[in-house]
Amino acid sequence: MKKIAIYLMLAIAGWSLTACDESHDDYVQPVVYSQEETITIDGFTATPTAAASSSINLGTMTEDSIQLFTLQQGTLPSGVTLDNIRLEAWPADKTEYVAAKVVASEKGMVTKDELAKLVYTFYGKKATERTFKAKLFANAIKGTEALLITLGDFTLKITPEEVENPYYYVYGNATSAKKEDAYKTVMTPDPNSDVVFSYTTKYVSSGDMKVWNSRYWQEGHKTNDFSKLYGSGEEKPTSYKGTTGKLKQGSTSSIFSPTKEYYTFTIDLEALTYTWTKLEDQNPDSYTTIGIIGVGGDWSNDIDMVTVDKAKHNWYAQVTIAADTQLKFRADHAWTTDWGYGDADGDWTVNDDIWAKTLEKGKKNIAVPAGTYHVYFCDITGAAHFVPAE
Q: What pLDDT, on the 0 to 100 scale, is given for residue 28?
């Protein structure tokens, strides 16, 4: 241990180059790899546990924390302590990233909340396994100065706990103020995020919008349980009409559009914010009916959809498909305007992972497997949803 102590003392002599404040974060936030130069000291190493080497499922994890490594410590010089042990982790599938800090204890314990926060930082809340690369660091602390020590490299596979179904309904004066109608107006997911959803229509600028997750809608609206309802989180009058604002879970306060015009209303359930984006085209095409055609090979008769959307641009139908089929959407029972998906390379097949796509006018048929679906379609954006009925 004498050799280790001497090496540390030599390293400590250069601390003025790596000094930090009393937080002992000796790097400049945010950290972008490649990491600044660190030192490795004989006798200070960390070994991943079997749990760290396997897939960690936060949904089945029963304890509040999990041991990811065991730490072997050398002998520190007098007055020097080891502190600020943490992993700095980033997605294995990304070439550009900002590393996230994951707090750990000397015993190698990391809380479930820290692991969940790591996943949500980069991916959102979808219950999909994510792979991360990580480096383990600690600080040798003397007074208000710190020396950065690297303790090893890790690979972590983490599956977040499934929090909510990925279906969100809107209701309010822009659609229907009847809570029981909320399931007829579904929001469209952002293809690049698990926590961002939008809804496009003409708003009335008076109590336009509240959002309800589908898992809690069925019973919640009957019992006035608003715990999973998202409303305005603004500390302003309910008539506040800013283009951005705060969401609050459990709030029954409506969100108001800035003006009586066409907007895309977007929510971010991680940041708990909303945004109003005004459409450039304030005179989109409108239709008397929207129908689904082709189910069971019937290309003559439409299954008419209904709408509770005041501007009549978002449509709904429950459809039972007895056998795998192809279908399209069309307007006013005619082939003048119809919507499909894909090109010569293939059709869209609805499945559990891809439940929403953007359709375009005049494209190919949509291949849909047998089942009973809640079907949604927005004739402004082309967003189509086939949500399996429970």
A: 34
Amino acid 343: pLDDT: 64
Query: pLDDT below 70 — which residues of the chain?
Result: 1-43, 74, 124-126, 163-166, 343-355, 390
What is the C-alpha radius of gyration for the chain, rounded to an integer number of angstroms? Answer: 27
Write phi, then psi, for 118 (nearest 5 degrees).
Answer: -60, -50
Question: What's 124's DSSP letter?
Answer: -
Give the HSE-up count for residue 40: Cα atoms under 13 Å, Cβ half-sphere: 8
CA 103 and chain centroid, separation: 22
Map residue 219 onto helix, strand or coil. Answer: helix
Q: What phi, psi does 14 have (nearest 5°)?
A: -100, 15
- The per-residue pLDDT for range 315-343, each reduced to its tens digit, is 999 999 999 999 999 999 999 999 998 76
Q: For residues 149 and 351, what is the distance between their CA atoms, to the nearest angstrom?
A: 48
Q: How far is CA 18 from CA 27, 35, 75, 139, in A?
A: 8, 13, 21, 11
Q: Could you report how far apart the first and last alpha carbons of the chain are, in Å? A: 65
Question: What is residue 103's predicted lDDT score, i.e. its pLDDT?
Answer: 93
- Alpha helices for 85-129 (secondary structure H): 112-122
354: tokens are: 């891809």
Rounded Cα–Cα distance for residues 89 and 121 (Å): 11
Q: Which residues contact 254 (CB under 8 A, 6 or more apart)?
A: 172, 173, 207, 208, 209, 210, 231, 232, 238
Query: What b/e sequence results for 290-314 when a residue is b if at least 16 CB atoms lie within 10 Å of its CB, and e otherwise?
Result: bbbbbbeeeeeebeebebbbbbbbb
Judge contact between 254 and 238, C-beta under 8 A.
yes
Query: Residue 65 in contact with residue 112, Cβ under 8 Å?
Result: yes
Token pair of 4, please? 């280790």
Cβ contacts of residue 344 below 8 Å, gap of 6+? none
Identify the pLDDT of residue 37: 46
Whether residue 199 contacts residue 170, with contact meaning beta carbons closer than 8 Å, is answered with yes
Chain segment 151-198, per-residue pLDDT in tens:
889 899 999 887 656 689 999 999 998 888 999 999 998 877 778 899
Residue 11's pLDDT is what? 45
How far apart are alpha carbons 61 and 63 in whole angstroms?
Answer: 6
